Amino acid sequence: MNSIAKFAVLMLAALWASVTFAQGTGELTLKNWQQAAKQYEEAFNKGDVASLIKYYADDAVVIPQDEEVAKGRQAIQGLLSGEVKALTNLQVKVESIEQVAPELAYETGAYTMQTKETKDQPSQKLEGKYGILWRKSGDNWLMLKEIASYKLPQQGSSQQQQTK
Could you say which of 55, 65, 149, 161 is the most buried, measured as most Cβ atoms within 10 Å of its Cβ? Predict the structure, then answer.
């Protein structure tokens, strides 16, 4: 699994999970969901996997681009652990949230993040889109299914040259 694909996919999954609303506060509105995404960004950028994983249902599934599907909290936690080590500067833009049934809501949006610079590779900016199916459990919304895609900068682009 290449590190760029791995962190891009997991970053997305984790990102949505941390919404404050998912913890049972606020109404299901775009504004509340956007505010919650900001809190998720903070947890992700701090590398706080424990805070991220609690937003996933036990039977959650993350479908990353060009990677193996992660099924269940344990597999997703492993994915997230790798992601927070490889990625930073996550920024999420929630574009829509719609309750499609009493117990289900669907979120779509876009994100950007940076790969962390290594001795072998400069930092790169990644851009992507995502969709998340949320399931209501009591007063909380938990991530049930997440799918994400991303695009890499073109070789030689100024985005790819963001080092040091």
Answer: 55
